[in-house]
Amino acid sequence: MIRVQLPFHLKNLARIEGEVELELPAPVTIRAVLDAVEEKFPALRGTIRDHGTLKRRPFVRYFACKEDLSAEPPETPLPDEVVSGAEPFLIVGAMAGG
Amino acid sequence: MSSIRVLVGTKKGAFILTADGKRTDWKVSGPHFAGWEIYHLKGSPVDSNRIYASQSSGWFGQIIQRSDDGGKTWNTPGSSAEELKGPGGFPKGESNKFVYEGEAGTHQWYDGSQHPWEFKRIWHIEPSLTDPDTAYAGAEDAAIFKTTNGGKSWKELPGLRKVKGNLWQPGAGGMAVHTILLDPKNAKRIYVAISAGGCFRTDDGGKTWKPITKGLKSLYELPDPAAEVGHCVHRIALHPSKPDVLFMQKHWDVLRSDNAGDQWNEVSGDLPTDFGFPIDVNFNEPETIYVVPITSDSLHYPPDGKLRVYRSQAGGGEWEALTKGLPQKDCYVNVLRDSMAVDQLDKCGIYFGTTGGQVYCSPDNGNTWSAIAQHLPPVYSVEVQTLK
């Protein structure tokens, strides 16, 4: 089971509390997780990645196992700890408030 | 008895203010969408329970929200579980998908070079006068979009950007379609305004547009007196009984047109300054108009620290200051372009919000004012629903 943590505002938008839990077939990549999150919560489409291009929005970041995965290609497989559910995949609003 | 619902968009959420027709005892609900920028909310003229809201953030982009119960509950259109199960293939989470039609193209950048069109947010939503599922959205970078399914999906009316869009240039506040006016007597006629872009009209429902800027003078920004685009139009307004008469607050100058924008004439008259943002028309008096003079393009606050609404009962030219109940010293707020609205009661109510977080109401045509909300985040927009 994959665990995904959303930032405060996206949890509100998706109307959830706590983590998102996903069951995904291997290989579990950044793209596969984001696709599944958006499928489960259509209101989040366009808020993490742009519509159409699916590019990460500039002030959104991805982390897992204390590593910044934001600039990694979408096909990047996630660490085993994320795939096993031991560690969450974090979607974070960047510190850019000024 | 009639009642009033005031929809307030702010930098940190939306607020809904309600009162009965006396307009003296107000209740405030909110913040709705707390922490998000709410550029605009507006109710459908044919279904007062249907309200559209533009919610955005620098982090997470654009969201469209819709209420079908007068603002008690909200949903992103087309995203409910029931709709996603529909056999007809409802759009999935596309209520915030604003994609320019075809090749996005370029517009003028600050240094005179060409810059690609990039969608940033929706500044203004204008619901149809006849169909609650139809609405128009004014976008930054400047474009107009339309929905015919209650906001589930949006499609650009690309003809607007074909009117010398390559010459439009963002102003300091960005380059957005911030005003959309629908002609109540001609369903095919729509007006839009764009700061540092100009003013445009369509007579065929949005397929083709033409600039309506003859008579506008922008001597320093646009030395060419014949320039059709590039004028910094801050706001336009009309009265539903006389839709060919338009009023405009430009960057500098207050103007009117008596022929649907084909020719404009300045009516700044004896205003203390003709710089400002909003302009609106009394619901019961088509020649009574309101502006809020701001010191200058460099000093975005009222002259002398006195917050004064100016009213002309002659459609411009001669103006009187309305001050009773408004702060007359040490006031340095601004009133943004979408932050003034009127109700439809017999004694017209005038409303405006400030960047200092106050919302003021006059229940008597502007003669007296009181703050009906204070200490809100900076107010971006104010709309009023008259519930009968």
Task: Give structural attributes.
heterodimer; A: 98 residues; alpha+beta; five-stranded mixed β-sheet; 19% strand; globular; B: 388 residues; mainly beta; four-stranded antiparallel β-sheet
Please indicate the percent range of residues of chain A in DSSP E strands (runs of 2 or more): 15-25%
Low-confidence stretches of chain B: none
> Helix count of chain A, per DSSP?
3
Side by side, the strands of the main sheet of chain B go 3-2-1-29
- The radius of gyration over CA of chain A amounts to 12 Å
The secondary-structure class of chain B comes to: mainly beta
Contiguous helical run count of chain B: 1
Helical fraction of chain B:
under 10%
Q: Which term fits the overall shape of chain A?
A: globular
What is the tally of beta strands of chain B?
Answer: 29
Tell me the helix content of chain A: 10-25%
Supply the helix-strand structural class of chain A. alpha+beta
Strand line-up across the major sheet of chain A: 2-1-5-3-4
Characterize the largest beta sheet of chain B: strand count, sense, and whether it forms a barrel: 4 strands, antiparallel
- Low-pLDDT segments of chain A: none
Q: SSE order of chain A, as H and E?
A: EHEHEEHE
Mean pLDDT of chain B comes to 95
Count interface residues per chain for the largest interface: A-B, 24 and 21 residues
**Integer-rounded radius of gyration of chain B:** 20 Å
Question: What does this entry look like structurally?
Answer:
The complex is a heterodimer of chains A (98) and B (388). With 98 residues, chain A is of the alpha+beta class. Chain A is 23% helix and 19% strand. Chain A is built from three helices and five strands; from the N terminus they run βαβαββαβ. In chain A, strands 2-1-5-3-4 form a five-stranded mixed sheet. In chain A, a hairpin with a 2-residue loop joins β3 and β4. The longest helix of chain A has 11 residues. Chain B has 388 residues and is mostly beta strands. Chain B is built from one helix and 29 strands. A four-stranded antiparallel sheet of chain B has the order 3-2-1-29, with no helix packed on it. In chain B, strands 9-10-11-12 form a four-stranded antiparallel sheet, with no helix packed on it. Chain B has a four-stranded antiparallel sheet with strand order 13-14-15-16, with no helix packed on it. The longest helix of chain B has 4 residues. At the A-B interface, α1 of A face β6 of B.
